[in-house]
Amino acid sequence: MFNRTQKEYTVVSSAKPQHTYPLDAWSIRETSFDTQSHFLDETLFALGNGYIGLRGSYEDGYSGPANTTLDGSYLNGFYESETIHYPETAYGLAKTNQFMLNVPNGKGISLWIDDERFDLLHGTVEQYERSLDFRTGVLLRKVLWTSSKGQRISIVSRRVVCFEHKHLYAIEYTVTPLNFSGKLRLVASLDGAVKNIEAGDDPRIGSAVSGPALQLVDSQQEDDFSALLHHTSNSGFALVSATASKLDYSGTHTLRLLKNGQRLEQSYEVQATEGLAIRLTKFGSYFSSRDYPAKELMYRSRDTLAQAQATGFAELLLEQEQYLANFWQQADVEIAGDDALQQGIHFNQFHLLQSVGRDGKTNISAKGVTGEGYEGHYFWDTEIYIFPFFLYSKPEIAKKLLEYRYAGLEQARQRARQMSHERGALYPWRTIAGEECSAYFPAGTAQYHINADIAYSIKLYFEATGDQDYLVNFGAEILMETARIWLGIGSYDREGRFCINQVTGPDEYTALVNNNYYTNAMARLHLNFAADVAERIAAKQPEQFSRIAALMALDNAEPAAWRRAAQLMNLPYDAALQIHAQDDSFLSKKVWDFANTPKEKYPLLLNYHPMVIYRHQVCKQADVVLALLLLSDEFSKEDKKRDFDYYEPLTTHDSSLSSCIYSIIASEIGYHEQAYDFFMETARLDLDNTHGNTHYGVHTAAMAGTWMGVAYGFAGMRVVKGALRFAPTLPTQWQHYTFKIHFQGALLEVRVEPGRTEYRLLQGETLRLSHRGEEITLTLSAPVKSLA
Ligand code: BGC
Predict the structure, then answer these.
(1) What digits encode the pLDDT tens for the residues 387-409?
(2) Which tens digit of pLDDT belongs to each residue from 710-750?
(3) How buried is 631 (Cβ within 10 angstroms: 0-12 exposed, 13-18 middle, 19+ buried)?
(4) With 0-12 CB in 10 A as exposed, 13-18 as middle and 19+ as buried, what is 267?
(5) Is 508 a catalytic residue?
(6) Which of 514, 677, 518 is nearest to 585 (CA)?
(7) Closest protein CA for atom 1 of ligand 1
(8) Exposed, middle or buried, 584 (CB in 10 Å: 0-12/13-18/19+)?
């Protein structure tokens, strides 16, 4: 049995559980079945390809308590919308929520022996193993089971969600009777009677919708093909969910097609022979009118499934493995000396790849496509936490994330008008299709820093890739439109300082404040960068500049006004404490009474009214300390140390976005033990369910925070004014670590060992970087440098 705790499905506090499943670097594997961990394991064993997400639920069903399972299937960016009902409304509040839908379940394959249904909770499970392999991308389950009448049977199922085919997944289900011959029934189903979970009291869970959101319009069923056509009630989308199943068996069998409400079944009656394997292969697809005209969905489904059948399951597995080999070749982070950690890191990287939208129309949600937590919404998590991982590991995916933001520029302009800004664009705090969906504005719309976060990621992208075309065609417009908002909300005070009032910074335990340090400092960077880009394009590509300026009716005087606001930006600093103040009022508030807050009162957000929290010096997550990382060269080491020392004791880390940032700054200021502890907290956050809510989905920002913890934290990587720097340290617990970075067309491998660091140019002609302040150049003829 698993010995992990924290399996309750209500949110529980964050004591660290034990894990007893094997610590393999490239897989997670469980060898026994446990209803207590079932809900959580459905998340951990989830598969996805950036579009389709299938929770790790069994093909053959689960008869355990309803609150220990969520058999979900999701499509990144496919959503229903619903009016947000405010008992007491106000002008400009977000009007409509969008939420990721649980779509028809095509995974089902039930097995009957005579009239007894195979079920892990009944009969006798003699052997059980389920694994998810990060190199093959296959979810494998092997079971040896004996029915109540003593019939022994082996069941092996393999599942993939194809990285190479956005709309396709495949399952192979093999049954072998071990001590009997007789009647068997295999039923492949496609079930449209699905619904989303209900939110309850936890704001981090799903949407508040209780009924089914999909309306059945048509169904088709013939031979091995089944399809359901649904419409969403409000968002106006059509969706075709389809499956094609085929039985591979040399003995006698018959096929019956059944329909039961929204459930289509292909029922194979088999005359089974002892020792002879029966194999059912099932291909499944989803096509929606978010991607194609509604009239094409059905034929595209048929076509995709027919092609998959012609290709075959084995070939799809090969493609999957090749795709992953290419990914790992660029992205692998290797840590020697800590198996639990290595497993955690690979698991995180694998789930990030599974979660990220790669079509420019979708992004990466806070929980990926593994669960309904945060309703499939995209946040700043993308730009500040997840983007760096893709930028330096798979830059083409990072570019797609930026394309997504460009696609949402028009809605951001409209939102700015709703918020009374005459010009400019304000990106939504949380969204799927671009409209603001945050119903609680103090910790939502008020987080104007989202604009600067997006600008920051464009800057990072440009510095790492030098992609001038992107900047001219898309980036510049976003940068300038979003920069305008700072002038819209900011104003000069009597001392001539540019102030940004009534906003919320990253720390959601403090809201609606004046001059949040992070926001102002990031806005300053944003304004300067927007002005730089405007000047550069105006000088080098005047025609392009005229085009952009015309598009956004840019006044000639605007870039200078941006510069002035940046120069005079109010950045709160407390001279007595010698620290950066989180905002104008933070330091004068009462410090939270941590000593008298029992463990079960965390996370605070579930136990105290927001205003009680807002009145205190208490942080949910890194705020000033995040600025120390993102704007690294604006602070001295002493500054960083003082800020860290002040804010860390005030931070609950109730947000999973916090520990990784603290780990990085701890590394930089030489707090090595703390750096390691914070890092460990992030690296296995989902595997060990330390936040107690992984059953609702993985935490993608924290997963990427692990990557940052290695590259930015231990290896001290920074890009300052376009130049790549490292200052590596090696945690005493490790023998060495290695990771790779795409930078300016080159691929660099960094290997940190006791006493030395090796830099190796794997691709590209030349790369300049600095190691603890020493400039080095790697070239084709001298691709390796090893330094102390
Ligand atoms: C954090 C936000 C984050 C959101 C989604 C919240 O708990 O406070 O910063 O964007 O989760 O991950």
Answers:
(1) 999 999 999 999 999 999 999 99
(2) 999 999 999 999 999 999 999 999 999 999 999 999 999 99
(3) middle
(4) middle
(5) yes
(6) 514
(7) 655
(8) middle
- CA dihedral 317→318→324→328, nearest 10 degrees, is 140
Q: Which of 194, 309, 176 is nearest to 245 (CA)?
A: 309
CA dist 285 and 557 (Å) reads 53
Q: Give this prediction's pTM.
A: 0.96
- Ligand 1 center to residue 374 CA distance, Å? 9
Type and span of the H or E element at 627 = helix 624-630
In this structure, are residues 613 and 605 in contact, taking their beta carbons and an 8 Å threshold?
yes
Q: Which atom of ligand 1 is nearest to the CA of 447?
A: 9
Beta-carbon contacts of residue 276 (< 8 Å; ≥ 6 apart) = 176, 177, 249, 250, 251
The ranges of the chain with pLDDT < 70 are 1-21, 199-211
User: 508, 648, 668, 681: which is the annotated catalytic residue?
Assistant: 508
Interatomic CA distance for residues 746 and 766, integer angstroms: 7
What is the model's pLDDT at position 433?
Answer: 98
Contact 606, 202 (CB under 8 A): yes
Q: Is 337 helix (H, G, I), strand (E, B) or coil?
A: coil
Rounded alpha-carbon distances, angstroms, from residue 691 to 4, 622, 685, 696: 13, 17, 7, 11
Identify the pLDDT of residue 200. Answer: 67
What is the Cα 153 distance to its own chain's centre?
A: 39
Q: Under a CB-based contact definition with an 8 Å cutoff, are residues 695 and 686 in contact? A: no
Q: Which two tokens stand for residue 28?
A: 């997670």
Q: Which of 496, 462, 617, 468 is nearest to 567 (CA)?
A: 496
Tell me what pLDDT residue 756 has. 97
Q: Which of 655, 659, 700 to mutate to test the pocket of ligand 1 (most atoms within 8 A of CB)?
A: 655
Q: What is the 3-state secondary structure (H, E, C) of 39-64?
A: HHHHHHCCEECCCEEECCCCCCCCCC
Q: What is the largest CA-CA distance in the chain?
A: 90
The predicted structure's pLDDT at residue 212: 77
* Nearest partner of 531 among 559, 508, 492, 555, judged by Cα: 559
| Cα-to-centroid distance, 269 and ligand 1 (Å) | 50
What angle do helix axes 476-489 and 517-540 make, rounded to 10 degrees? 130
Give Cα separations from 79 to 207, 440, 482, 485, 649 (angstroms).
11, 20, 26, 29, 40
Q: Where are the beta strands (DSSP E) in 134-277?
A: 139-146, 152-161, 168-177, 182-191, 214-222, 225-232, 238-248, 253-260, 263-272
518 lines ligand 1 (CB under 6 A): no
Give dist(CA 39, CA 172) in Å, integer: 23
Ligand 1 touching residue 380 (CB < 6 A): yes
Binding site membership of 621 for ligand 1 (Cβ less than 6 Å): yes
CA 35 to chain centre: 26
- Distance separating alpha carbons of residues 7 and 34, to the nearest angstrom: 10
Beta bridge pairs of residue 228: 219, 241
Domains annotated for the chain, with CATH where assigned, are: 32-327 (2.70.98.40), 715-788 (2.60.420.10)
Atom of ligand 1 at shortest distance to CA of 381?
A: 10
- What is the number of residues in the chain? 788
Q: DSSP letter at 489?
A: H
**47: Cα within 13 Å, side-chain hemisphere:** 28
Beta strands in 527-623 (DSSP E): 573-574, 579-580, 590-591, 616-617
Encoded tokens for 681:
């907290």
DSSP string covering 648-716: GGGB---STTSHHHHHHHHHHTT-HHHHHHHHHHHHTTTTTTTTS-GGG---HHHHHHHHHIIIIIIT-
